[in-house]
Specification:
Blueprint: H1 9-22, H2 44-55, E1 60-66, H3 84-103, E2 108-114, H4 116-123, H5 127-143, E3 149-152, H6 154-158, H7 163-174, H8 178-187, H9 189-205, H10 213-241, E4 246-249, E5 260-261, E6 278-281, E7 287-290, H11 292-298, E8 300-304, E9 307-312
Parallel strand pairs: 1-2, 1-4, 2-3, 4-5, 6-9
Antiparallel strand pairs: 6-7, 8-9
Helix pairs in contact: 1-2, 1-3, 4-5, 4-7, 4-10, 7-10, 8-9, 9-10
Length: 323
């Protein structure tokens, strides 16, 4: 008996089912008065890539640049090491892979492309803090048994070269020219939104500035271009190292863009990430991300494994293993 589904349409059908699992978590720049469901067909780039894996019966590979390091502003984060915000996000990503495996047995995996060293000098975070953050991410992944996740960083490409040498190498080889980037920012609304968002983060993350506010904003506007240049360079390098992967992004992305924006946890601002905030467990058991100073007003600090972990809106912590 002939198959009920033509061979060429089967991978697309399965890819559509897989993408439908991601769509509820889509982080988008598009704004509509009343949110409406967006069909998988509106994401041709992702469908094409996922279909290629399905056609070969291979595990789907997602790459996600992010998890760079903690913000250097102590009013926003608990420390320079991963905490409950990262653990919840990692668990979410691993669970997403598990859900994919239920409908597609070869499953999926996420390569977290930790980019702290790429622009650490521009955001004011010491390289030893970035190493400690990435190393602890790997430890947390192993400890929690999140076998569908892995961490990839500049050390996997350029080994033990000095960090400044690595940054210079990828900037010179992969980064766009500054004037071209400035022209793009002037002409493209999405590029302008990204530039403004990064500038805002740089201003907020500068905790020890002694000059005027206007001088700080000027300095951060200049550094924002550098961060975008390096981020673009990192993206090109990732594509070179993982050419078939489905590209995820922690930044909001338009519907149908080559990158699929994904929301890791609930936050009032679409730009908020675990490394710019602290996790709060609300009284109803749900989790949210917000600056440490705001989280501290909502509940008490909870430690896990001898380290500051998150804030709890309840007066008593009740997580297993939490002190």
């Amino acid at each position: 008996m002939p198959p009920t589904t033509a061979p060429d349409t089967l991978p697309t059908s399965i890819a559509t089912e897989i993408l439908n699992l991601l769509l509820p978590h889509h982080r988008t720049t598009d704004r509509v008065p009343v949110p409406v469901p967006v069909p998988a067909e509106a994401f041709p780039h992702q469908l094409r890539r996922i279909s290629a894996f399905v056609r070969h019966g291979a595990p789907i590979v997602f790459t996600l640049p992010g998890f760079p390091c903690k913000s250097p502003n102590p009013a926003k984060v608990l420390s320079h090491l991963p905490d409950q915000g990262e653990r919840l996000s990692l668990t979410f990503l691993n669970t997403l892979c598990t859900e994919i495996e239920r409908i597609y047995p070869p499953g999926a995996r996420v390569i977290i492309c930790s980019d702290g060293h790429v622009f650490g000098d521009l955001i004011g975070v010491p390289d030893d803090h970035i190493d400690a953050y990435a190393d602890d991410l790997r430890t947390q992944i192993g400890r929690m048994g999140l076998h569908r996740l892995s961490v990839f960083d500049l050390r996997d490409v350029l080994g033990d070269l000095p960090h400044d040498t690595k940054r210079t190498h990828i900037h010179e080889r992969y980064a766009p020219a500054l004037e071209a980037l400035r022209a793009e920012t002037r002409a493209d609304d999405q590029a302008l939104a990204l530039y403004r968002g990064i500038t805002r983060f740089l201003v907020e993350d500068t905790a020890d500035w002694t000059g005027t506010r206007s001088a700080l904003q000027r300095a951060c506007r200049q550094r924002a271009y550098g961060v975008i240049q390096r981020s673009r360079a990192w993206s090109v390098l990732i594509a070179e190292q993982h050419p078939r992967a489905v590209r995820l992004s922690i930044h909001p992305q338009p519907i149908g863009a080559p990158k699929f924006g994904i929301r890791l946890l609930n936050a009032p601002d679409a730009w908020t990430t675990p490394w710019h905030s602290a996790a709060v467990r609300r009284s109803d058991g749900t989790w949210a991300l917000m600056p440490r100073a705001a989280a501290a007003r909502m509940g008490r600090l909870v430690q896990q494994g001898g380290r500051d972990s998150h804030f709890d809106q309840n007066r008593a912590a009740c997580l297993p293993g939490v002190q």
